[in-house]
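Practice problem: predict the structure.
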Amino acid sequence: MPIENLYDCTLSGLIQIDQISKPKDKNYTAIDAQFPLDMSKDHIIYPVGTAFKITQLQPPFVADFIAGFVPLPEPKLTYYTLKKFMDPEQVPNGWIPPSPTITGIVKAENTDDPTAIRGTLQAYDRGAGKMRSAPVILTRDPDGKNKGSTVPTKGATIYFSGKISFQQETSRMFVISLDHYTWVSQAELTPAIPPPPASPTDPSTSKKRPRLGTKQTTAQHSAEAGPSGTSSH
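Answer:
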């Protein structure tokens, strides 16, 4: 299987849902939404998106979501999960939601500038019924959060997580600030993966703690009630 089949891009976090509608002759719901960019909170992205079985939700509201993200030619979201987080009256005055986290697997196309790597990502576009690819720029911070990380080679496959910092005015490409990344070169067919650590004999007992929302065990009730027995006269 070609490694390109694994390329993907996902957005997750909070997003404002503005409108929900049901397109004619479609089995999905259309969604208009908005979210701010990380380094330019006044720059708002208005993606169009699709989801299943959410017509009962009444916009506007703030949602917690996970969605496939296609940046170009227009931002599109294919929602995998979408749950209401806040109603309009619950949103604090002046509150700006944090920019969503972007995660994906991309191919490094140009690594001449070690601090700005151009790559190609792809994600599923439910509206079009196919995968779409788009160029992006990944920015490294070699003296800060990416200190010690090596520069990917051209053609490398990169797994990354970060934030969308801003969008270039001319190319409309999104610039992603890398929080974390790993990569494998084109020449390496199979990356070296260390063997997993040995499992304990009974992993459920070593750090066992009570779970919220569950009833206490008989032993706990007995301990609280005190010792039981027959009194003597």
